[in-house]
């Protein structure tokens, strides 16, 4: 069992740049074993935050990237048939509940709503997980904690979380970091010089100003890190920006043109 | 001519029909529809003038066509350029009528809507109209000296081509093209016809030659995005024509109504490249169509500035003033001193702009003239302008290479001041004044001024930099009449009371606001059908989207471990895997689910006074556009079958918030509802929180999985009794939170381009959309709804 746990432990500190007092608040939520919801646009540091916290608390972390085809069994577990008969295999949620891991359901709205309801019993005071098919009721390990992330920016009511699900979580609102912090993150993540990082962050700001005016989402910190990585690798900065920052986020010719112009104006 | 006896449905239209005194049955047939459109989009006086002009056209003796075409097309023209364009248009008609050119009237009238749409301002349309008398005078009856008996052969052909030509040429280009045709073919009827119908080769060639530059109309969205993305600014962009004022070239500027820019900018090439110095050595604007007649050096070389970048430079300069320039009192300074202050301040804001976006330096320097040191002779000429332009160049160009010690001293002091925190207008003004004092020469007073290389084309006229004390306050007329009188249509219904959030104490004020509700009075439903008909093409497009969204009764869900049926394909594959010793996929069942679109929607319309404002550049009010948009949305939602209610609100202090039901959840989208929508009026203020709570009260009671409240507004929450601006913003924000608790998702569609700040506070970063171009609302509202619920 211990080796099982070991494989989910994070041994090296994942770099996380706090934006406020979220580290302390998370520690408090964990101390009370409250379920946590991380809201915010893609690529703004939600996953990194959870990794960092798992490392800091010394707990194993099991991450599940949710998708539309996922069923409840994919979370809980299922019987497998093999030559010697049937065999039960725990799903990631069950494993986390047994070994006392932090279970992180990334982009939980992607999963269908009938899938998400299986987490409900784990989020109230009983902290149990019924395995109906196996006829077992698991009492979650005292260290177990549930964390979900979701991006409210999809602008589709249909992809919103059910109110009854939302009400079970404490929530952190994430956003792209303030400019100076973001410069620090990009530089630290890629080894890019601060000046280049600052220019990239400026391009990011231009795109974020256009959100809602033809762009559904601005340029994420993740994309800025990509661009810096390319530049570090010797790609001409403007090419790197176009490739990592502009082309991925838009097909709108006017917006592309405006962002290209901004890149030229910033990397003069 | 005997009037056609026809009875119109509406007495008002009947009266207008009688006024028209028209005997054409064809006109009688369409009159009612035309008038409905006109009444919706023209003012009272505008309608009068419209009918009068139509009457004239009907009695002119050229048959039914002129009056018919005019009746059908005028409202669209008025919408694009304003109804006050009618007198000059009718002048043109009269002139043709009095000449032998009566046959050209129909094509002329036909050309108007396209011309108006393209030119967008009355000023530019006037340029077009000005071409007509000149064209007529110079081509009518001039053949072999016989006097004015033959009509102009080219004129009707020309009008036929105008919609096409204006799509290709700026107005000045059109003028040049016409000029060429008249000059060369004024005396050859056949060739003239060929030229003006674009048949002849040289006609096309001249058009190609004139077809240059970047038209504002074509890059407007890019410029909007530029302002917003790079500068967090935005305004209405209004074109003016560059070609016509020979005396003084118009200069860009901005005021309350928007930012004025030339209608076209050519690409700009440095003198050394353009070969032999352009106008005033300022570089040369070259015609540069996609064609390869002028092979351009690559733009990346930093020597060419595209028309688009010239627009951007001009906008950036004005943004600089809008951000950093504080108006100075002009009265105490001489014209020379003011000119100096302007040069210094222009260079200051540009330096600050370049700090934000270093790439701007290349563009500014390429466009800024390079005055030659010593080019101005102070013995014979006033050189102050030249000195200042030289200095301005030196402020911006680190490699200016000038050697004058005074200049160098001031460049250093300039950058010294800016090094701190960008300095200020008044500080830089003192530096400018000391420069004038230090370099003053007797000859500055000479009437002969050195202009060469001193004009900086992308700079505005700096009218915002000055205030004059003598002028007195600008009067602003505040006698807007209130359309709905207090107390009207409120009888009988007891108010409902709602709490309001007081952010300063972080508490609710209980039962603070009284909401009165009523059924909206009814108007003419046909008007709404008319509006819908106008958007026929759009409706067809929407229909396709709607069909995709329409709930299909049953959807099959495959790959289920448990389900209602065995999925044979998957089961077989699993069995084979199992037999082969591999782990089989246990998800061998499938099930069915009704694909329920289970949404209830409440649309809440802000009906405050500001909706009566005309949309910039259009004759329509925001209210009218909202009516169109809401009709389309209602039609779309009806097709989808979602339960849907519409309510409107306005307020006059907390004691009187009115909530008007336009459509109930159970009501069909039909005559009754359209009638109410048609009668919609605007007045008073916007107490948004209370209205949202009231609409939520009904929406909450709906049985639906998802509940969506759409709020359509044009400004921030406010009311006459709320002095503190934040109060109602914070209350609305609190209301959104309350709605969220109830499982209602609130989403705001705002027409206020500057809404981002407060609307984010209220609805959150993802809870709103700003519609920048209000005229796009009818198109965007339904699409937005579809995107939100797909
Ligand atoms: N606060 C932060 N500290 C460190 N790195 C960050 C931070 N925010 C974003 N990043 C960078 O952005 C990338 C994307 O973040 P991630 O956590 O994967 O985003 P999300 O989970 O929100 O989609 C990370 O890999 C990291 O490089
Ligand atoms: Mg200026």
Core attributes:
heterodimer, A: 268 residues, alpha/beta, Rossmann fold, five-stranded parallel beta sheet, two-stranded antiparallel ribbon, 9 strands, 16% strand, B: 790 residues, 5 domains, eight-stranded mixed beta sheet, three-stranded mixed beta sheet, 28 helices, 21 strands, binds adenosine-5'-diphosphate, binds magnesium ion
Describe this structure in words.
The complex is a heterodimer of chains A (268) and B (790). Chain A has helices spanning 2-6, 22-31, 46-57, 72-76, 92-99, 113-116, 120-123, 163-166, 179-190, 194-209, 221-232, 237-246, 253-266; strands spanning 36-39, 61-65, 77-82, 85-90, 102-106, 128-131, 136-139, 145-150, 170-173. Chain A has 268 residues and is an alpha/beta fold. Chain A folds into 2 domains: 2-173, Rossmann fold; 179-266. In chain A, helix 10 runs antiparallel to helix 13 (253-266). The radius of gyration of chain A is 21 Å and the shape is elongated. In chain B, helix 4 runs parallel beside helix 6, helix 20 crosses helix 24 and helix 21 packs parallel to helix 23 (622-640). In chain B, the strands form 6 sheets. In chain B, strands 11-12-18-17-16-19-20-21 form an 8-stranded mixed β-sheet, with helices on both faces. The complex binds adenosine-5'-diphosphate (ADP) and magnesium ion (MG). Adenosine-5'-diphosphate binds next to helix 3, helix 9 and helix 11 of chain A.
What's the number of extended β-strand segments of chain A? 9
The topology string of helices and strands of chain A comes to HHEHEHEEHEHHEEEHEHHHHH
Q: Mind describing the biggest β-sheet of chain A?
A: 5 strands, parallel
Helix % of chain A is 40-55%
Number of helices of chain A: 13
Within the CATH hierarchy, at the fold level, what is the topology of the largest domain in chain A? Rossmann fold
> What proportion of the residues of chain A form beta strands (DSSP E)?
15-25%
Instruction: For the record, give the distance between the C-alpha atoms at the N and C termini of chain A, rounded to a whole number.
Output: 58 Å
Distinct ligands: adenosine-5'-diphosphate, magnesium ion
